[in-house]
Specification:
This protein has 13 helices and ten strands. It is an alpha/beta fold and 340 residues long. The longest helix has 18 residues. The radius of gyration is 29 Å and the shape is elongated.
């Protein structure tokens, strides 16, 4: 399993196509993701003509942030296409500043490029390819770490994809499943975070969450539920033209999200309930001891009338209460004296 050095949640800043097809801007995405503390930056690799037919219209969500809403999908994605040479430059730049470079391939030629030319250590399968047999079969011949997004899919389709992926050289322990809802943005009522627990139990793989909601709270909740990977769309400017800009986090928001996730990672702790070092010094001030409610003479019986419990907790614990009631006092006590 790929993890950062501290074995914390692996955080992927999804640049996607938000770079607008500009190599210069794409490099800025890598630098900003690194500054924000992300473990990886992710792009999309595709040859437009290999991905969509020429007459396919835009999805409804894609039209919202585009000036020309009447263009075909192939015209739109062509503007965001990065050449193989661009991707090599970005890969080397990411390597230089020590952030993992990941890309989702959307066609077999691009997939072959990521596997063989860039030799990426992690392959990210986008939700739309979960039913793409030749695509999954090609990956099955590798031994790389695989992240599989499961948007728009059923348990049966996920199981079938895993079966294909593990049909050759790839081992199941190399696969991380990302729960995902492929709506941009995803309404909170459709997130269904509870399915994370089912994925873990049903498929016995590492699991995480690819977050398309607005804001940061769902990603944080997923981490609390055990997500080992979080993927979140990232942009340098939400007002730029592009289908994913509005549903992305800007650098300030991404940095805040990563900080929150790291705090959650640190907070998860162990499965053993113990007194921590930070709270142990407060035991004496928070707990109580058995003390005299009023003056008590030697030989007098202890009772509800002359005993009570009060702070501090450095005397006899109230859990020993029954050991004293109706027993004779061996000492004289003033009010608030600790019983001994």
């Amino acid at each position: 399993m790929f993890l950062n050095k501290k074995k914390q949640t692996y955080i992927i800043a999804e640049a996607g196509i938000n770079h607008k097809g500009s190599l210069k801007i794409a490099k800025k995405f890598i630098a900003e993701a690194k500054k924000c503390g992300a473990d990886a930056i992710k792009f999309q690799s595709f040859i437009s003509e290999e991905v969509v037919t020429k007459n396919l219209d835009l999805a409804k969500y894609q039209k919202k942030n585009l000036k020309n809403k009447k263009i075909k999908m192939i015209e739109m994605i062509k503007k965001f296409e990065l050449s193989k040479e661009d991707q090599k430059i970005l890969y080397n730049f990411a390597k230089k500043i020590k952030i993992d470079f990941i890309s989702s391939a959307f066609d077999l030629i691009s997939l072959d490029f990521l596997i063989n030319d860039l030799d990426l250590k992690i392959l990210k399968i986008p939700s739309g390819e979960i039913t793409n047999f030749p695509y999954l079969k090609k990956i099955s011949n590798t031994k790389k770490n695989i992240i599989l997004s499961t948007g728009m899919s059923s348990f049966k389709e996920i199981q079938k994809a895993i079966h294909i992926l593990t049909s050759s050289n790839l081992k199941k322990n190399k696969i991380t499943l990302l729960h995902c809802n492929t709506a941009y943005p995803t309404p909170f009522k459709n997130v269904n975070l509870n399915v994370l627990k089912v994925i873990k139990k049903k498929f016995k793989t590492n699991f995480g969450y690819s977050d398309h909601t607005l804001g940061e709270e769902v990603s944080i909740a997923a981490v609390a539920l055990g997500a080992t990977v979080i993927e979140k769309h990232f942009t340098l400017n939400k007002n730029w033209e592009g289908p994913d800009q509005k549903a992305s986090l800007n650098p300030e928001e991404l940095k805040k999200l990563i900080s929150s996730i790291r705090n959650i990672n640190e907070s998860m702790g162990t499965f053993i309930k113990t007194v921590t070092a930070s709270e142990s010094k407060n035991v004496i001030f928070a707990r109580k001891s058995i003390v005299a409610r009023k003056s008590i003479k030697k030989g007098e019986k202890f009772s509800l009338i002359n005993l009570t419990v009060k702070r501090p907790g450095d005397g006899i614990s109230p859990m020993n209460w029954n050991k004293f009631i109706n027993k004779k006092s061996k000492f004289n006590y003033k009010k608030d004296d600790k019983i001994k």
